[in-house]
Amino acid sequence: MRRTQTKAFASLICSIILLIFEIWAYVETTGFRVHKRAFVQPATFPQIMICGMAIFTVILFIQSFIKVTRGMKDGDPENEPAASVNPFTNRGVAAAFFVIILCVIYTYLFDKLGYVLVSACISVIIMWLIGKRDLKIIIPVSILVPLIMWFIFYKLLTVNIPMGMLQPLRDLVDKL
Fold it and tell me: Which pairs with CB-CB distance under 8 Å and at least 24 residues apart come from 31-40?
């Protein structure tokens, strides 16, 4: 089997793509608004997460590069043929692409509709996608978790998160 058809080569290519994405994402976070009174800035958490992801991606790149260039033993699991990434034949890949599209939609609507509303809608879709079908659980969780997270970030960490149409809720919390 050729080296370019192994799991190690697929990991190498994925690590390169991930590194490019992580560099782009980090550069994008440098353009976030800075709030003078806030100890934790809106870019802080995404930058920490991106750096953590980048560390593991570099580790994956190094391991894959070593395996592809130096060769692998016959029993090595990384020497097996790589799975197909065709979204038409692999449902897991199709679901992953759908979640990526949801993330792009999420970032587009974040400022326009606000964190709580967009997070609730995306949460419902993702929970449905992973197989949760009980609306008695999906609806409250999708509403309460973003609200609680917003409250923690807004009140306790003083991170100003867009509320969109729910701006009156922010005004109500400010009065309390």
Answer: 33/160, 35/158, 35/159, 35/160, 37/158, 38/157, 38/158, 38/159, 38/160, 39/157, 39/158, 40/157, 40/158, 40/159
Tokens of 38: 């806030």
List, for residues 55-72, the tens digit of each pLDDT value: 999 999 999 999 888 877
Q: How much is the pTM?
A: 0.55
User: In whole angstroms, how far apart are CA 141 and each of 26, 30, 39, 167?
Assistant: 30, 32, 29, 21
Contacts of 105 (CB under 8 A, 6+ apart): 122
DSSP 127-170: HHHTT---HHHHHHHHHHHHHHHHHIIIIIS------GGGHHHH
Query: What was the pLDDT predicted at 1?
Result: 58
Burial (0-12, 13-18, 19+ Cβ within 10 Å), 176: exposed
Ramachandran region of residue 114, left (φ > 0), alpha (ψ -120 to 50) or beta?
A: left
Angstrom distance (rounded) from CA 3 to CA 104:
33
| Segment 81-106, tens digit of pLDDT | 777 666 677 777 788 888 889 999 99
